[in-house]
Give the backbone structure.
Amino acid sequence: MSILIDKNTRVMTQGMTGKTGQFHTIHCKAYAHGADCFVAGVTPGKGGQCFEDIPIFNSVARPKRKAAQPCQ
């Protein structure tokens, strides 16, 4: 199965702060347009934090409803 992304694709990672989520986020950001694609991460209880300059939310509904703001 192929997953095709371009510079207009928006990606939200569930479980971003876990070991596997961190691994895949770091490697996906390094590939092609990955650095421009990630707009949010989701990990319950860790909302308000950032990982690799990507804001983390407590639930999927929140970043979907609200435009993700870059981390500061």
Summary: The two ends are 36 Å apart (CA to CA). DSSP finds three helices and four strands in the chain.
